[in-house]
C-alpha cells in the first residue's frame, strides 16, 4: 500500500489535513516567488530612486523622473505627499500646524504604505512556517490511530502488519516539514532584505522632511533678517 492509496483509504480527518498542507504549500510558494520578484526590484530601485530625487531640481521634477525609476512605487508616494502638503487648506486640521508638523504626518503615512506593501505576505510565511509541522503531526497521529484501530479489529497483530501503515502515516510529518522549511527560510531571507530597504526608505523620508522643513523656516525668517 503506497502513500496515495493510504490517503484515499483514510478518513475525512486525514484527507482534510493533507488538503490543508497542500493549500499551505501552494500559498507559501506563490508568496515566495512573488516576493522574490518584489524584493529584487525594491533592492535595486530604492537607492536609484532616492538618488534621482536628490539630483532633481524640484520635487515636481523628481516626481516625474520617478515614473521610470520607481517601478514598485515605493519612493514616489513620499515625494507626492510632500508636494501635497503645501496645498493643504488652513481651514482644515491637515493644514494647521507648522510646515514641519505637516511634513511629518504626510511622510509618515506615505512611508507606512510603502512598508506595508513590502511586508505583504510575511505573516503568511510566518504562519505556514510555524503551523505546518503541527498540522503534519496531527495527520500522523490520527493516521497511526486509524491504522492501529483498523488492524486491531482485523485480529492478530504482527510487526509486518504494523510497520507499513504506521510508516505511511509518518509521511504526514515529513510533508509538514517540507511545507514549513521553505516558508521559514524565505521569511528570514526576505526579512533581512526588507529591513535594509525599510532603513533606506526611513532615511530618505527623514532627510526629505529635514530639507523641506528647513527650507520653509529659511523662507519665513529671511525677510526679517533683511
Secondary structure elements and pairings:
Elements: H1 3-9, H2 12-55, H3 59-69, H4 76-85, H5 99-119, H6 122-154, H7 159-169, H8 171-225
Helix pairs in contact: 2-3, 2-6, 2-8, 3-4, 4-5, 5-8, 6-7, 6-8
What does this structure look like?
- The chain has helices spanning about 5-10, 10-55, 60-70, 75-85, 100-120, 120-155, 160-170, 170-225.
- With about 230 residues, it is mainly alpha-helical.
- α6 (about 120-155) packs antiparallel against α8 (about 170-225).
- The chain is rod-shaped.
- The protein starts with a helix and ends with a helix.
- Amino- and carboxy-terminal Cα gap: 94 Å
Residue fraction in strands: under 5%
**3D shape:** rod-shaped
> What is the helix content?
over 70%
Strand segment tally: 0
Q: What structural category arises from helix and sheet content? A: mainly alpha
Summed up, the helix count is: 8
Largest sheet: none
What does the average pLDDT come to? Answer: 81
Rg calc: 28 Å
Order of helices and strands: HHHHHHHH
Amino acid at each position: 500500500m503506497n502513500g496515495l492509496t493510504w490517503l484515499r483509504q483514510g478518513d475525512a480527518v486525514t484527507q482534510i489535513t493533507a488538503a490543508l498542507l497542500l493549500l499551505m504549500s501552494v500559498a507559501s510558494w506563490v508568496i515566495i516567488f512573488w516576493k522574490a520578484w518584489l524584493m529584487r526590484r525594491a533592492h535595486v530601485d530604492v537607492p536609484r530612486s532616492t538618488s534621482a530625487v536628490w539630483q532633481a531640481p524640484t520635487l515636481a521634477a523628481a516626481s516625474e523622473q520617478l515614473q521610470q525609476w520607481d517601478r514598485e512605487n515605493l519612493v514616489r508616494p513620499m515625494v507626492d505627499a510632500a508636494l501635497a502638503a503645501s496645498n493643504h487648506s488652513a481651514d482644515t486640521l491637515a493644514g494647521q500646524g507648522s510646515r514641519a508638523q505637516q511634513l511629518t504626518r504626510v511622510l509618515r503615512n506615505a512611508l507606512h504604505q510603502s512598508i506595508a506593501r513590502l511586508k505583504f505576505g510575511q505573516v503568511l510565511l510566518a504562519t505556514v512556517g510555524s503551523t505546518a509541522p503541527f498540522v503534519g503531526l496531527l495527520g500522523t497521529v490520527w493516521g497511526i490511530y486509524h491504522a492501529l484501530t483498523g488492524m486491531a479489529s482485523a485480529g492478530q497483530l504482527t510487526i509486518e502488519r504494523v510497520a507499513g501503515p504506521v510508516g505511511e502515516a509518518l509521511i504526514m510529518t515529513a510533508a509538514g516539514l517540507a511545507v514549513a522549511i521553505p516558508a521559514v527560510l524565505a521569511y528570514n531571507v526576505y526579512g533581512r532584505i526588507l529591513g535594509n530597504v525599510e532603513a533606506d526608505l526611513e532615511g530618505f523620508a527623514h532627510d526629505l522632511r529635514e530639507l523641506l522643513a528647513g527650507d520653509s523656516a529659511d523662507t519665513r525668517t529671511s525677510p526679517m533678517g533683511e
